[in-house]
Amino acid sequence: MDLLVRNILIQERQQRFLKENLWTDKFADAWYVSGGIPEPIKVRYRGGHTRDYKKKSYEIVRNGKTVHFNAEYDDPSMMRNALSFRFFEMIGVPSPKTRHCRLNLNGKSQGVYLEIEAVDRYFFRRRNLSVQSLVYATNDDANFRLISPETKKRKRSLFDGYRLMLGGSSDKEQIKQFISSVNTLNSSKLYGYLSDQLDIDNYLRWLAGAVLTGNYDGFNQNYALYRHKIRQKYRIIPWDYEGTWGRDSYGRLCGSSPVPVTGYNLLTKKLLSYAKVRTKYKELVRSILNSVFTVKRLEPVIRHMHAGIAPYIREDRTRRWSSAVFDREPDLMLNYVKERRNIISSELSKL
Questions:
Q1: Residue-range definition of the domain harbouring residue 152
Q2: Element (H, E) at 87
Q3: What pLDDT digit, counting tens, does each position of 98-137 carry?
Q4: CA 166, CA 260: separation in Å to the nearest integer?
Q5: Which domain of life, per UniProt (predicted)?
Q6: Looking at the chain, which terminus has fewer C-beta neighbours within 10 angstroms, N or C?
Q7: Domain boundary pick from 257, 275, 291
Q8: Is residue 315 part of a domain?
């Protein structure tokens, strides 16, 4: 099956504008060509350290809707984000839709990209989810603590580490109050507060997904937090899962023990201090180990995804990794699943 082709046209002046604003989030004007018809769009570079790479990742806004085109330059499989989000959906956590495509810029092939659905108001509309507010956790200050991990001092604002995407000033205050309460309420009062303010089942499913896929960077950043408008509870959505399934976010092998079964952040630590929550979490993880996180269930997904992009990856001269490395990735990922199952099963017995 042929990969989709996405075509973007951008004038040299606008390209120069992007290069001059590499580390900002400023947009340039461009056109998206579909069926031979150009439509005006906004485009900008996206990512963290990856903005300095030769092969850029892009964010475009077309008709008010945002789409991300990830180069996945550090991932030799080009599948880790896509597989992770598919896995999260399989365990009941709403996650961005993805599909691989070929990206052309001014008629010149940029190689294979991963097209990722943005987490925005349209994300919730497509899933018939009622949303009051939405924030992105953009750096390690989104650690649910009062102290910044970088400065080791009290944060200037408890909203540090977050970016408000939907909502207003009152929603920012709600999140700051939530973080303050997580840190200051005593144990007996905190459980009732978290039961009222947090969708604990959603959070534990997200935690299980982050733990099983091995996303070291996913606990204090790289997530989206939204407040359900009707239930008035916070829910969490995964984001940026390139460093998973046996490799870190730079593509380096990291083995099958990147994170403990309990994850890393303070909110998780507080939740798992309650016996009833620990019991629920252990039952949930064991259920996922028995049903979804198995070689039998995941191998067809991995093999099919790999086969679908293999011919294009082998022809793609923009990639960092060789075809030989790419060809070995399914076996590496499946070996990770085997080893991770044993590790997590052992840790669960001690939790």
A1: 128-291
A2: helix 80-90
A3: 999 999 999 999 999 999 999 999 999 999 999 999 999 9
A4: 33
A5: Bacteria
A6: N
A7: 291
A8: no
Asked whether the beta carbons of 325 and 77 are under 8 A apart, the reply is: no
Q: Does residue 111 share a domain with residue 67?
A: yes
Average pLDDT over residues 272-283: 98
- For helices 323-348 and 295-315, give the axis angle rounded to 10 degrees: 160
Do 270 and 245 have their domain in common?
A: yes
The verdict on 221 and 277 lying in the same domain is yes
Q: Does the residue 78 lie in any domain?
A: yes
Which two structure tokens, joined as six digits, stand for 248?
Answer: 């870190």
> Which amino acid would we find at residue 224?
A
Residue 221 per-residue DSSP state: S
CB neighbour list of residue 241: distance below 8 Å, 6 or more residues apart: 80, 81, 84, 85, 213, 215, 218, 222
Residue 62 is encoded by which pair of tokens? 């077309």
In-domain check, residue 321: no
Q: Report the run of H or E that residue 40 belongs to, with start and end.
A: strand 37-46
- Tell me which amino acid residue 170 is: S
Q: Dihedral angle at the C-alpha atoms of 45, 51, 56, 60, nearest 10 degrees?
A: -20
Entry field: residues in the chain: 351
Q: What is the mean pLDDT of residues 37-60?
A: 95
In sequence order, the β-bridge partners of residue 39 are 32
To the question of pTM greater than 0.90 for the whole model, the response is yes
Q: Please tell me whether residues 68 and 134 are part of one structural domain.
A: no
The answer to whether 114 touches 72, Cβ cutoff 8 Å, is: yes
Average pLDDT, the chain: 97
- pLDDT given for residue 125 in this prediction: 97
User: In sequence order, what are the residues at sequence separation of 6 or more whose Cβ sits closer than 8 angstroms to the Cβ of residue 213?
Assistant: 84, 87, 241, 244, 245
Same domain? For 192 and 101 the reply is no
- Are 259 and 143 contained in the same domain? yes
